């Protein structure tokens, strides 16, 4: 049986012969090691032993208290581990998603597997550029795995956000940009550099931004949002965010959601905002296809979002692909034919 045998259990991916989980949702307190690709809340839990980058470890410590065994790997640094049935090598590569995000290249018995976690090919302002790597097997996220999800150039969206802020301020209102506190908010903040706009950050955004700065990131001048924050600021807050009465000093507001889902026509109405800007930290459909081409795997397993649709697209293109997240429990070995692999 292949050393890189894959199991999909309880919504998570694990490699039993290596004693390794990949981004499980549930806390793993037993002998298993856990690779944590990045520090978004749906990818972290109170695990006993983790493999991750230094930046992800810092962010994770701020979000989950308690002690854990941490194997901190620098990007592109190979590290050998002893599994229950032999040794294996892990190399972390930039995923381009958020600060510290990494893909895991796992090698054992002359076979290789690349697990992406969440990733983005397009360069961002607050994360390292994604670095694809050739592998025999690819396990990839497919959040935007349908042809309709094609993002405009980030520079265009950033200009639209800045124009929204300036027009709102000129109209005597306060612009409120709603973006996830980790990753997207820092991308938005960085995009406001050299605009001359005064910026105030919601407390959750402020805390994550301070960790970014401790890791060497640079941002334009900003302040912490509070009850005494005066008008004339651009506010960056996590969604959803209802303006507390104590912030009445900022006066009338106009809100905008910053999300890849903004490419959907109904996004603005679903969030109840005045504007929606399609700036994402995930790969869109064309970049998902491009990524597969750059990795050149002989098999692909898809996860999250439109996993089944994207796997079907790859099969139409002659690539052996299956959606992992379509089954509650699935065991796959690299050498098995597709019919057996589906379970």
Primary descriptors:
7-stranded mixed sheet, 22% helix, Rossmann fold, alpha/beta, Metallo-beta-lactamase, Chain A, 2 domains, disordered C terminus, 343 residues
CATH class of the largest domain: Alpha Beta
Determine the number of helices (DSSP H or I, runs of at least 4 residues): 8
Q: Please tell me how large the radius of gyration is.
A: 21 Å
Helix content: 10-25%
Principal-axis shape equals globular
**Poorly predicted residue ranges:** 333-343
Order of helices and strands: EEEEEHEEEEEEHEHEHEEEHEHEHEEH
On the 0 to 100 scale, the average pLDDT is: 92
State the CATH superfamily name of the largest domain.
Answer: Ribonuclease Z/Hydroxyacylglutathione hydrolase-like
Q: Measure the end-to-end span.
A: 16 Å
Describe it:
Helix content is 22%, strand content 27%. The chain has 343 residues and is of the alpha/beta class. It has 2 domains: 203 residues, 4-Layer Sandwich (Metallo-beta-lactamase, Chain A), CATH 3.60.15; 124 residues, Rossmann fold. The strands form 3 sheets. A 7-stranded mixed sheet has the order 6-5-4-3-2-1-20. Strands 7-8-9-10-11-18-19 form a 7-stranded mixed sheet, with helices on one face. Strands 14-13-15-12-16-17 form a 6-stranded parallel sheet. The radius of gyration is 21 Å and the shape is globular. The protein starts with 5 loop residues before the first strand and ends with a helix. The relative contact order is 0.15. The C terminus is likely disordered.
Q: TL;DR?
A:
This protein is of the alpha/beta class and 343 residues long. It has helices spanning 54-63, 154-170, 184-191, 203-214, 267-271, 285-295, 307-316, 338-341, and strands at residues 6-9, 12-15, 20-22, 33-35, 49-52, 69-72, 78-83, 86-94, 102-108, 111-115, 137-141, 174-178, 198-201, 223-224, 233-237, 253-258, 275-277, 299-303, 321-323, 329-332.
